[in-house]
Design brief:
Layout lengths: L5 H11 L7 H18 L6 E7 L6 E3 L6 E7 L4 E2 L1 E2 L2 H7 L9 E5 L2 E5 L7 E7 L18 H15 L3 H18 L2 H8 L10 H15 L2
């Protein structure tokens, strides 16, 4: 569990922003945005979940599990096969092939799209990361206290972006990414390198890095 409470984050963020007298409701939104950014960038075991779902014959889509932040991977337990993630456009092209055992998946809004279209009932295990509960009152994060600084830096990034200071927002985001990378385990690094976060637009460490590149490019 974290060490800093929401109130602690509010005090530090207000001070970092120059004591602008910003209402706590706005600070809370930015702090929780940073909390969610971190949850999507690192594979925290406490947020992991898996759910069993059966496909329907001749039906290409299934509903994604509720409260899904990132779909990590999908396994066809009937055939003992790990489905491959592909971009949605590529998957739709693959779906032209005859029906059969699902081999690929992608995500569209609240649905998971399969290809080929299932030719029967297959038992799938869907492994996900769920978002943490919003911080309120005296609550602390679900993550070890070493990650409090990452939440703070990402909260500062979101605050400055909302206040229209893109240059400083990018600087805070860059510091946040560096801090996260310095504390990621080998397992975290491998998960990000494998593209598991790609199932959600903007997901994973790559999403934060793309956001930083966009802010830096916009300031040129």
């Amino acid at each position: 569990m974290g060490l800093m409470t929401l109130a602690d984050f509010e005090t530090d963020l207000q001070s970092a922003l120059g004591d602008r007298g910003i209402l706590n409701a706005r600070l809370d939104r930015w702090i929780n945005a940073g909390y969610y950014d971190l949850a999507g960038a690192v594979e925290f075991e406490i947020l992991s979940n898996d759910e069993s779902v059966n496909t329907v014959n001749a039906t290409q889509t299934i509903t994604a599990p509720t409260n899904t932040l990132i779909i990590q991977y999908i396994k066809d337990t009937t055939s003992d096969n790990l489905l491959g993630w592909v971009p949605k456009g590529e998957l739709l092209r693959k779906a032209i092939t005859p029906t059969g055992q699902p081999l690929y998946w992608s995500r569209h809004k609240l649905n998971i799209i399969l290809a080929p279209v299932p030719d029967g009932v297959y038992a799938l295990s869907i492994y996900t990361l769920e978002p943490p509960t919003v911080l309120t009152g005296t609550a602390v994060t679900l993550f070890p206290e070493t990650w409090d600084q990452a939440v703070f830096l990402l909260a500062g990034h979101n605050a400055l972006l909302a206040l229209g200071d893109e240059q400083r927002s990018a600087a805070w985001l860059g510091r946040g990414i560096t801090y996260i990378q310095s504390r990621m385990t080998e397992q975290d690094i491998q998960a990000n390198a494998s593209g598991l976060g790609a199932s959600l637009s903007g997901g994973g460490m790559a999403g934060l890095q793309a956001r930083l590149a966009g802010l830096q490019g916009g300031g040129q």
